[in-house]
Design a protein that fits this description.
By secondary structure, the chain is of the alpha+beta class. It has helices at 2-22, 41-44, 60-63; strands spanning 84-89, 100-108, 113-114, 121-125, 130-132, 136-138, 144-146, 149-158, 162-176, 179-193. It has a domain at 84-193: Immunoglobulins (Immunoglobulin-like, Sandwich), CATH 2.60.40. It is built from 3 helices and 10 strands, in the order αααββββββββββ.
Amino acid sequence: MLSTVARTLSVATLALALSAACSGESKPAATSPAPEGAKTAEAAKPGAEPAEAAKPGAEPAEAAAEGDKVKVVEGKAPGTDDRYALQIEPPAEAAAGQEAEVVVRVVPKEPWHMNLDFPTSLKLTPPDGITLANANLKKGDARTLDDSACEFAVKVTPGAAGEHTVTGQLKFAVCQDDACSPVTEDVELKVAAK
């Protein structure tokens, strides 16, 4: 008899514990997504606020949960950066077999300035028929590198007449009082040789 009372007491304690853990709240049943334009039962209730994702024309970023901390920003079109201006000056005249100079310059826009501690570099890949005096320029090779600008003078010798394009990557950083921004720009140096 004592064993039956002990079992009954154990079952009652377990039921009470489960009841307290669930606190009487029922969870909503899982539903499949409603077709676009269809109203859910919740949205059909008078005075109910429609869900963000159900708003017509809602952007994905607007439909994100309030706690999200990621902001997606579209990148800028090449040549329209508000931190700096990239200038590439082809040689005024170039002749086959003669060395010419292409100037690659970065000019920071206010309030930005060049980061003089950054390992600034210009790595170039010449096409067939073009010889470069130095294809891997480092910040020590820059003609100018100060707060207001960075300038590389690229020595190019075309082997034949015609249009030539040297491609490469320019790496530098610009800073302002509270932030620095490293940049990698793909560059094209055009040389028209006679």
